[in-house]
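Box S2. Input/output pair 1.
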Amino acid sequence: MRFVINVLVCSVAIWLTDLLFDGIVVTGTKDTTANKLLAYLVIGAIIALVNTFIKPFVKLIALPFVILTLGLLTLIINAALLELVAWLSKATPLELHIDEFWWTAIWAALILTIVQMILNAILPDDVKA
């Protein structure tokens, strides 16, 4: 149940990021509301999977540099993982497109992190099935 909530949180975060930035675009096969919703859910699931399985290893490997930069490297790591999600989404008919890494991906990673932090603070930690 926690993974489903994580997917929903990531989907809402990528939707808000798509609204705020012109350089972030989520596309699907058709331009219907249901297809847009499905696209955000699929991209949210990919983000949740990357955050669950890949992000801990990358942060562990980069830990000395994160300490050296006082945590600023974490923003670059999040932007790089967002680029990874964009690359992985090309294998599906629903795609996340990021214009450029330096400003678009970094600002998008910052917004995603803030929105996920707020939504995770609002939603309960323990969900009883």
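Box S3. Input/output pair 2.
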Amino acid sequence: MDAQDVNDIDIQQTLRGFKYSRGRVRATLTRISAYLDSGNDRINICQINERLSRVRALWNQFSNLQMKIAELEDDPNNDVEADLFEDNYFNTIAKAEELAELEDDPNNDVEADLFEDNYFNTIAKAEELLLFHAVNDLIMM
């Protein structure tokens, strides 16, 4: 094995490491995006803002890794990776900002709406239960 072979192996290992790291950045973005899409009733403005700042930091990480990969490898699939990340990144930013605006809007009281829904559902179930017992009592007489 000559010096060129050793150099090629080092480059391939470095490239694999960069691609692995790029995949982890993509996975983090996907996880945050899925969280925002989940419709979780417990999402609040603080969580949204924290996740938004994490998403924004991912842009620099991805860009740096993408640039290093492009220096080591001329593969058109790298451009596809960048395009997919960019689309997901901007969609996630838009979702987070939209949710932050909704949470920050005093006219949009999501928790009050949920409480009201739960309250009326509980009353309806209690009425059904009372009716069931009344009918059951009549049948048992």
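Caption for Box S3: Helices lie at 3-37, 45-72, 76-104, 110-140. The chain is about 85% helix and 0% strand.
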